[in-house]
Task: inverse folding
């Protein structure tokens, strides 16, 4: 059979001479513009996408199955890996769902603490999203600026949690440790830098001709369709629906801080960009208010008597030389090495069934040691009563819900995570069909797909 | 409408279509008969007072090893509905037996049900009648079994599938 010229370039069967034929193009799973592993099979007519199919699951790690294996607190490190750009929100969302099952409320200081850390994460997430999608449109400078700003914020996160990404900071009934010393000051400095970056990016992008040509009117989804696809978060707000879990069903301390919910009108990529930019400012506002209002005040470590090196304190306890140990004050760092007792009570629920005792008690008294083991031993641990609970929080991409079923044992019977970027990915074919193939990239970028939470 | 009123409304509209209702930790739940679920979902979406316009989540639970439920219907398909206009939530559940694990699809009401139902089919092996495209979502086509079922061992490995060389 004689091959036409077209067939040599485009592959067999792509042109038999009788009019135009559609061409199938694979994007991903490994593609420079696909941040995260995902495959889009697009059917093209010329440069127009006629039909698209999205294939996910390349990063499936059996999160929900693994959660059923271990005790409740064991799932916390797994939640870090859901949305790995803002892992703190996942941590807190999961912990809050278990707390709802148990019917306990965290302390006031812990509620503010969760708000502060969540909002810092939200800014990180939006910075990454805008930076990456701007880079894909050729604005590499913006990407570098935004990653620079994210670095300042991740330093804050590192300062409090001890890690940048895999933070595992939340615990059922509280958090691992209190804020570090001088945290408010560090936040002020980091926010100053971040605001400066946002100002620069605003000047670079918002009125930029190239950027607007690629973003305005592209990837739009109508208000009705956005709702029908259960899309939440910045994408829904860009379509003009002011839905935000923080406002609609306030949790933690969100009813005690002031913030606005920015909305767009057209639901296109440009409005999504504007909503995210505006949300970052609101998040920083929330953090500043929360730092003002956080109760408990600064932690004054004003010890009297002999101070003792924490390591040797623990060693003495392990050797059984416990007499008088409780009387000796111990100066553990409130962040990385451990938690002093007064701080521990400020950020954790006073419920022995749920929260591990402070280390002074574990190593200093038999009751503390028993309490510790009752929570650690296989088959004991945290045992919520039989039942089920759904707890939604506002993740960076929308409503992040955890649905946990308890059978009364120390392991969750079923953990379901409702990932916020799952619905927009399901709607992605609707957003790109009928548009040019080059528009796939900014639309995909504006969704801010995080494969970790999408595939779980 | 508060949660109790929603449940009362559902009970009075559907009578025996609602098997039971309960309220645990502020989450209001109605267990719906399988035959009634398409109508219940439709009324939930279209009724002006209920106004559940968002299918927030659709998932399933395998009750094979749940204490005291070993002999009941094995699966529960769970719908979480949310109303943007009224700002309220409800949870609907449908119980299905293992040997007849099928539920009417909700894809004609909400397009997002398409992917949610594909995931449930993938993970639990529950079929959705009249679903336009019931393929696996997260696992690959060659995968055997449904991993979130309680009788699927957590450490089971299956051969990796790649392009034939």
Result:
């Amino acid at each position: 059979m004689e091959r036409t010229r077209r067939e040599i370039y485009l592959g067999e069967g792509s042109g038999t001479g009788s009019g135009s034929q559609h061409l199938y193009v694979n994007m991903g799973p490994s593609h420079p513009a696909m941040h995260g592993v995902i495959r889009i099979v697009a059917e093209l007519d010329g440069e127009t996408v006629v039909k698209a199919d999205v294939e996910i699951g390349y990063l499936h790690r059996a999160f929900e199955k693994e959660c059923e294996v271990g005790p409740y607190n064991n799932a916390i490190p797994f939640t870090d890996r859901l949305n790995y750009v803002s892992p703190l929100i996942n941590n807190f969302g999961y912990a809050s769902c278990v707390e709802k099952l148990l019917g306990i409320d965290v302390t006031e200081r812990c509620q503010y603490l969760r708000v502060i850390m969540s909002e810092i994460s939200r800014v990180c997430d939006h910075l990454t999203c805008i930076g990456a999608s701007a880079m894909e449109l050729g604005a590499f400078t913006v990407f570098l600026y935004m990653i620079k700003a994210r670095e300042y914020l991740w330093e804050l996160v590192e300062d409090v949690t001890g890690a940048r990404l895999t933070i595992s900071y939340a615990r059922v009934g509280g958090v691992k440790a209190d804020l570090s010393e001088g945290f408010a000051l560090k936040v002020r400095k980091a926010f100053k830098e971040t605001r400066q970056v946002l100002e620069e990016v605003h000047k670079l992008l918002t009125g930029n001709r190239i950027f607007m040509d690629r973003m305005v009117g592209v990837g739009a989804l109508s208000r009705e369709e956005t709702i029908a696809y259960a899309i939440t978060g910045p994408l829904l707000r860009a379509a003009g629906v002011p839905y935000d879990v923080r406002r609609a069903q306030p949790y933690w301390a969100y009813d005690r801080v002031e913030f606005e919910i920015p909305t767009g009108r057209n639901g296109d990529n440009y409005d999504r960009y504007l909503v995210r930019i505006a949300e970052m400012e609101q998040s920083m506002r929330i953090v500043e208010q929360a730092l003002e209002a956080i109760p408990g005040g600064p932690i004054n470590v004003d010890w009297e008597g002999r101070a003792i090196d924490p390591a040797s304190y623990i060693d003495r306890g392990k050797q059984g030389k416990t007499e008088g140990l409780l009387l000796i004050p111990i100066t553990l760092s409130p962040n990385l090495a451990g938690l002093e007792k007064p701080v521990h009570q400020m950020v954790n629920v006073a419920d022995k069934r749920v929260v591990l005792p402070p280390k002074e008690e574990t190593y200093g008294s038999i009751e503390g040691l028993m309490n510790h083991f009752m929570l650690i031993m296989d088959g004991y641990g945290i045992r919520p009563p039989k039942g089920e609970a759904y707890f939604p929080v506002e993740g960076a991409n929308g409503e992040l819900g955890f649905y946990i079923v308890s059978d009364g044992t120390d392991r969750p019977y079923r953990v379901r995570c409702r990932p916020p970027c799952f619905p927009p990915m399901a709607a992605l074919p609707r957003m790109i069909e009928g548009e040019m193939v080059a528009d796939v990239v900014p639309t995909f970028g504006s969704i801010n797909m995080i494969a970790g939470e999408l595939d779980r | 409408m508060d949660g109790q009123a929603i449940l009362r409304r559902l009970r009075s509209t559907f009578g025996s279509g609602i098997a039971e209702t309960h309220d645990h930790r502020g989450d209001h739940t109605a267990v719906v008969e399988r035959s009634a679920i398409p109508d219940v979902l439709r009324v939930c979406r279209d009724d002006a007072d209920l106004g559940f316009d968002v299918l927030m989540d659709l998932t399933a639970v395998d009750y094979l090893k749940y204490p005291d439920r070993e002999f009941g219907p094995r699966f529960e398909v769970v719908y979480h509905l949310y109303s943007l206009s009224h700002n309220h939530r409800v949870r609907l559940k449908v119980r299905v037996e293992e040997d007849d694990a099928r539920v009417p699809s909700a894809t004609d009401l909400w397009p997002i049900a398409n992917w949610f139902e594909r995931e449930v089919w993938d993970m639990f092996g529950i079929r959705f009648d009249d679903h336009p495209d019931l393929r696996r979502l997260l696992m690959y086509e060659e995968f055997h079994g449904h991993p979130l079922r309680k009788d699927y061992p957590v450490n089971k490995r299956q051969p990796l599938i790649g392009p034939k060389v």
Notes: The interface with chain A takes residues 24-27, 29, 53-57, 59, 61-62, 66-67, 78, 80, 84, 87, 89, 91, 110-112, 114-115, 123, 136-140, 147-148, 152, 154 of chain B (CB under 8 Å).
